[in-house]
Amino acid sequence: MTKQDLTNNIINEMIPYLNGDQLEKLKITMIKNMHDLEVVKLSTEVTVFDNDNSTYINRFTIEKRIQNLSESTIDQYVRETKKLLDFTNKNFKEIKYDDIIYYFAVITSNNKNLSKRYLNNKRRHIKAFFNWCCENEYISSNPFNKFKNIRCE
Length: 153
Hints:
Elements lengths: L2 H12 L5 H14 L19 H14 L4 H18 L8 H14 L5 H20 L18
Helix pairs in contact: 1-2, 3-4, 4-6
């Protein structure tokens, strides 16, 4: 956007509120005051170049805070998601159903005392991140969709 574009946009928005002489005075004042300024469009992206897991986890965290989720809930989502991604050593875009099944098989075989409720909560927390990735079109499908609820008795 140029200074001229900015001036014209402001003048057009003020037409209903000012008469012709006032609009002309406003235009001249803007031109004089913006003479030695540069108009640069502000970027409001969280990040504009990074493609790693932490970037998207940070975006997810910011959005969940905006949605007013509790910090403890957000922490659970992030902690469980990071555990899966660290375990697989993959980018979230590369995670497949087989990775998920293997991850849960390993953690249950390493600790036979994990409750079904704990495992289902873990599944839900990680699935929330992948749902968000789908909603934002970072991935085309959620690999957790095939991984159904773990029935708690």
